[in-house]
Amino acid sequence: MTIRVLLADDQALLRSAFRVLVDSEPDMEVVGEASDGAEAARLAAEQRADVVLMDIRMPGTDGLAATRMISADPSLAHVRVVILTTFEVDDYVVQSLRAGASGFLGKGSEPEELLSAIRVAAGGEALLSPAATKGLIARFLAQEGTGDGAERDPARAERLESLTVREREVLVQVAGGLSNDEIAERLEVSPLTVKTHVNRAMAKLGARDRAQLVVIAYETGLVRPRVE
């Protein structure tokens, strides 16, 4: 199955470089290019994209607004957004994760990392780039939430009560950045069992993918940011 990729960046040279890289892979194809967020949201629907590589800073409608537009459209529930940014950890990145992005990569990432991120996002397993440590993300989530829970979603916090003990346990491990295989080894269960728990947790909490599960785990207070 070919992964349909949409490129959204206001720099034509970068889009051309990404196109050459993506189109060189037998399991991927670039189905469109956008120079701003509004065009990206429109093309994501028109071209039936699976993954959008989204520049976070663009003139007009930026990547953050475009990510919100895509995640708010039920007909685009299958679309995964991977944010590309020069600054791998900042307020905009955290807002993008909250808006529905599956994760992000720095523009300085190696080509293999970018291609891997596309495949991971298309498979619904996206989290964060290797350079974006969990501790930094935790700190930004805490800052965005003002540290006192004022901006937490009460509905999601209540929905945590619907999780089984095992689902909560798996969610904590997901928030720690572990893969299904790593969680399975730690909890001494099969990877398929872990995947089932993850899918059930996503359904109960209204999360699009694992990246949003991480955000929810911090925002609801299930996982506390580490102080370094």
UniProtKB/TrEMBL annotation:
Keyword tags:
DNA-binding, Phosphoprotein, Transcription, Transcription regulation
Which parts of the sequence carry 4-aspartylphosphate? D55
Chain ranges of the HTH luxR-type domain:
156-221
Domain Response regulatory, first and last residues per copy: 4-122
This chain belongs to which protein, by name? Response regulator
